[in-house]
Specification:
Elements: E1 2-12, E2 20-25, E3 46-49, H1 59-63, E4 68-71, E5 74-77, H2 87-91, E6 97-100, E7 102-105, H3 106-114, H4 117-123, E8 126-131, H5 138-150, E9 154-159, H6 165-171, E10 177-181, H7 187-194, H8 199-210, E11 215-221, H9 229-241, E12 245-252, H10 256-263, H11 277-289
Parallel strand pairs: 2-8, 8-9, 9-10, 10-11, 11-12
Antiparallel strand pairs: 1-2, 1-7, 3-6, 4-5
Helix pairs in contact: 3-5, 9-11
Length: about 300
Amino acid sequence: MTGMVFGIQHFSIHDGAGIRTNVFLMGCPMRCVWCHNPEGMSAVARLSFVPDRCSGCGKCFEVCPEVHALENGVHVLRREFCRHCFKCAGACAGHALEQVGREMDVGEVTDAVVRDKRYYDATGGGVTLTGGEPMTQFGFSVAILEACRAAGIDTAIETCGAARTGDYGRILPLVDTFLFDIKETDPNKHLEFTGAESGLVLRNLSFLSGRGARIILRCPIIPGLNDRPEHLTAIAELSRRYPGVEGAEIMPYHKLGVSKAARMGLAAQELYEQPSQDTVESWKNAIAAAGGKIMKY
């Protein structure tokens, strides 16, 4: 069993309880306008290019002359001709060109996770599947979770909630915690901001809660888009409504996705205001004042 992975991050403390290893899986059904990990949207590997790192050595011109060109002294990447062989990335000594995403088998992923088990045991941590959207690689995710369970490792999965309900039922016995994204509570704005309907997301939240899942709501808040008082009140209501929900976790906007999208050759992201810590605390206080539960690790 193999799948596409674009990163394995050790010693994470922000994606579930304790020290965790995050496995970033490729592919996502949503297209959030603020996406923090746009390199994980695609289900296939992509070429990353950071012009500032280019030393002008010319190695990439030699291996991929159709894709790389020098125009008026500037290194130009012609992505429309790229065959995704990534030979140019292999030849780039300065890491201006890099392959993002690679095929891994379950054993490779599990070996990377298991080696830090002593830290999980000491802190109540474990493995978190994230992305992208892990449910888009359902069979691969199941196999990783089964292997981690067999090794006695706590498991979590971060999901946007837009997968088949039956798949959530099948994966439920393998997941200790669902980090369940609530991106927008207004149906029309959810469609506008993510490109996906919110109805399926809410049905899956209800489904998981009704079957005893442990759930933490993860709520990205982007100034000027969804920092509205009525959205914060709706988050509070969701955190109260479902017995499986332990609380809501506010995920403040950061601008790293803008540069990531640029280096991946994706459509340019709009740059939103990065909130201050005082602003983030005001959002949490608004949710709490409306009777909502806020996560405190």
